[in-house]
Amino acid sequence: MTEDDKADERASGPRKAEVGHSLSAATSQGDVDRLNSEFYGKIKYPWPPTAFDRVIERGFWSRMLGQDIGSWDRPVVPEGGSVWVGGCGTNQALITALKFPEAQVLGSDLSEQSLEVCRRNADSLGVQNLTLVRESLNEVSYRDRFDYVVCTGVIHHNADPAVPLNSLARALKPEGVLELMVYNQYHRITTAAFQVAIRTMLGTGGKPDLDKELPVARKLVETFTEANFMAHFLKTRAADQDAAFCDALLQPVEHSYTVGSLEALARECKLELLTFAIDAFSKKGGAIDWNLNLKDPGLQSIYGALPDTQRWQITNHMMLTDSPMLWFYLQRTDGGRARKSEQQICEEFAKRKFRKTSTEVEMYLKGQTGTYQKIPEKRPFPGQPRDVAVAKLYGALDEKTTVQEALKKLGANPSFNLLNKARINLTTSAFPFLAAI
Fold it and tell me: How many CA atoms, within 13 angstroms, populate the side-chain half-sphere of residue 193?
C-alpha cells in the first residue's frame, strides 16, 4: 500500500463534525482536490488588489526573511535561488515574485481560473521571474529543489493534510525555509459551526454545492438576529465580497490546529517549527507575539523557562480567539542547520550592530481596464517605527553601537521580553527598519 493509499484509507468515509473542523466531504485526497479545483474556479480567491508594489533594493526581503529566523549574515534566498508558492491562488505567486526578483518563482494551484488571473496580472506588470503551473500538492514530486517554500491557507483544505505537507518538506533544500499557515482552531470554531449548520439544512454535507449554499448562507447572515455570538460574528461578514465570504464560510473541507497539534503534524513530516511569522492579518489586529507577559514574577519565570513551542501552546490556549494566526517558519529536521531558540535569537540581536534601512517602493495601480500601470513617483520605504518604546531604541542606534549598548544608554534592562519586542518591531519582515551589519 502506497503512502497516498494509506492517506485515503485514513480519510475514507464521511467524518463526524468536530470542533474547529468541517470534514464531512473529506473522503479522499483526489475527491477533495476536485472539490477545491471547482470551488476556487468559481470564486477566484483572493480578488486582485488595487495596487501591487516592489521594493527597489534587490535582496531586501530575503535579508529580512533571514532575520525573521535569526539568520543575521545569510539571506534565505540567494541570488539565483528558487522559491515555490504552493496553492498560490490569484495573487500570492505574483506578490512573491515581486518581493524576490533575484529568484525564480514557481506558483502552483489547482484552479486554472485563478492561475489565469495571476498570469494576466503578471504580464501587465512585466514580471519575468514567475512560472505558473496547474498541479496538486498531493501529486508533485519536487525534491531538494527550493530555498524557500510558501504555503499559507492550503494544506488544511485537504482530506489528510500530512500528504501535501510531506510534499512541501521534500521540496525544500536541506537548509531551506518553509512559511506555512494553517487555521488556528480557536479562530475557526464559529465558522465551522456555520458550515455544518448550512450543509445540514441543505443536505449537502457529503457533497458541498456552492451554488446552493451561497444564497442560503447570505440570507441567513442577513436575517439571523438571535442575541448571541454567532449573530454578532455573522454581522462582521455581511459586507464581504463573495470570494472572501465563500472562502471564510463555505470552503468544502477544513481542518484546524493548535500549536501543539501543528507541531505534531510537522514532526510527522520530518519538519520542525523555527519561529512564528508575523502575517498582515495578525499585524493589523495587534496580535504579533506568541509570548505572554504574566504579572506574577514566579509564574513568568516558570513560563519563560519553557521551550518555545510549549510557551506558544500556553499562549494559544490562554488567548483563545485573540491568539495570533498559526503562521510559522519551519525547516527540515535532517537539514543540518541547528534550530535557534527565541532566547538565542534575542541574545544575538542584543550583541549585533545594525544599519537603518532606507530604500524606495515603486507602485503599480490598477486601471479601469483591469491592467496595472507603474506610476512615476516612488515613495520612501520603510520610514520610521511608530511604536514609541522601540522608536527610542531606534533613535539611539547607529552603525557603531550594539543594541545592548544602546539600551544601556537609555537605562533599560535588556530582559527577554524587552529584547524580543524590540527585535520583532525593528528587524522582521513585518517591521523592516534595521538590517544587520
Answer: 12
Q: Which helix (H) or strand (E) holds 189?
A: helix 185-202
Give the three-class secondary structure for 413. coil
The DSSP call for residue 376 is E
- Four-point Cα dihedral 347, 348, 354, 357, nearest 10: -90
pLDDT in tens, 158-181: 999 999 999 999 999 999 999 999
Q: Quick one: 232 and 118 in the same domain?
A: yes
Same-domain pairing of 37 and 178: yes
Give the count of beta carbons closer than 10 Å to the beta carbon of residue 285.
12
Structural domain tally of the chain? Answer: 2
**What range defines the domain where residue 395 resides?**
351-369+385-436
Its pTM surpasses 0.85: yes
The end-to-end CA distance of the chain, in Å, is: 52
Q: Which of 342, 382, 415 is nearest to 70 (CA)?
A: 342
Among the residue ranges 2-11, 104-113, 206-215, 411-420, the one predicted with the least confidence is 2-11
- The Cα 303–Cα 323 span in angstroms is 17
